[in-house]
Amino acid sequence: MSIAIFAIISIIKSVAVIFVLLTAVAYSVWLERKVSAHIQNRWGPTRVGPFGLLQPLADGIKFIFKEDLTQPYVYKTLYIASPIIAVVFAITAISVIPFGNSITIGPITTYLQITDLNIGLLVVLGITSMGVYGVALAGWSSNSKYSLLGGLRASAQMISYEISLGLSLIPVMILAGSFSLREIVNAQRHLHWNFFYVPFGTIAFFTYLISAYAETNRTPFDLPEAESELVAGYHTEYSAMKFAMFFMAEYANMVTVACLSTLLFFGGWLGPVFGPPLMQALLPVLWFCLKVFFFMFLYVWVRWTLPRFRYDQLMAFGWKVLLPVAIANLVVTALVVALRA
Amino acid sequence: MLHLALFLFFGAICVAGAVNLLVQRHPINSALSLVVVMASLAGEYLLLGAEFVAAIQVIVYAGAIMVLFIFTIMLLNAGEEERTKGSRVAILLGIPGVAIGAVLVAWTLLRHSQTASVPMFALPGVPRDIARLLFHDFLLPFEVTSILILIAIMGAVVLASRPDAVARPHHAEPAQQPREVPELVGPGKERG
What we know:
The complex is a heterodimer.
Chain A: H1 3-39, H2 55-65, H3 76-92, E1 102-105, E2 108-111, H4 120-130, H5 132-141, H6 145-176, H7 181-186, H8 200-215, H9 227-230, H10 240-265, H11 277-303, H12 311-340
Chain B: H1 2-23, H2 27-47, H3 51-76, H4 88-112, H5 127-137, H6 139-160, H7 187-191
């Protein structure tokens, strides 16, 4: 395949994936509002479109037309750059996520993935580490006490839980023998999902899930941005479109975590496949999307069920409980795999 | 051809970031320029075929160490540095001196180095090969380095938990004299 065709196909794939991702982010807000409403025995958005389905569109229009206050005392360059940094790194992580097997249209066969790196897992971890900058710089550049405290707390929490996040993913890599996300999914064929690999896969899954909830600043770890605690934490001083970008970054991180959970522990796109070749190429995408939807629902469900941790409880839990569990799981998995080989 | 273009691209970003680090007055801008330098170095490593090292460079250096730099700058509230009057002699002699020194070093290295260029992917860069080197061929240095890091961690914990390292002891603040409350001049007083 020549470079030109490769470039055009990559551009088409990138545009399609980013379009779907941004729509998913907007509708995950709708999902959150509806599910939280039903958990709290009320209706949620019902007026804008059937079942409130056009509510994200209305929210988008609102954000565009809202007054964009910029305080005079902020550190201008970083104040404007922080939401951009947050959104860019949140959306970039989707570029190594595989959605299915390869698809053949005419003479062109291509993977349903923007790029299949053989260090895909490390790339995702690297991009989430870089996402801390958006939060830390937003809190600092806003030049306000709530923002600074919220930003420092949020970024300290994120870097603390990154460690157990990475360590909980290493057993998955050991079991699959590769860092490539496609290989890890292919190693889970025939219902050998990593989640069912008791006890190492299950412990790794729960450690990963808890670390990821803390990493994306979601309840029960959302103290840095809870209204009753710190006004709004690091995005207190932001309004209109910049706030919308932080919002988008948070939900895009949630989507990335949900995608990684399905790929690494629940078999990704593996599921019953039948029918003509085009359907055989697209049916795995359906299974992938259903599993990701389940994880997004789980995110919302946990948020509106559990109370939040206090900050010292949060940090103690991350360093004194989660990290030793992740390390122990890693050591024992490595021993078992080495002894079995 | 594309390889050379990408090398020059990442190299230019790296040098621009490094120069910006020196030129900026506020330390946070310098720290962010250093992040740009680290990221462009990761790009250079990718061009060499060392994918694992590139990923680890981003995760460890740009994603953790530089975050801690930025924490320090934020917590210590380091402001913009003052601009004192530069010495003209230093500029007149310094800039040509640096240029000559750099040219000398580059010429010596290029002329007398024993290394030759290597085809891409000839050296180990895959995680499997790096793991074999790290845990099989160089196991003893690896374990000694980990003990060194453990000693550093213990030293940091000891330094941070010393009783006289705490800035202000909480119990030692006596009840202070109440501040002078200025007399409120109200309508009653004026009339009196």
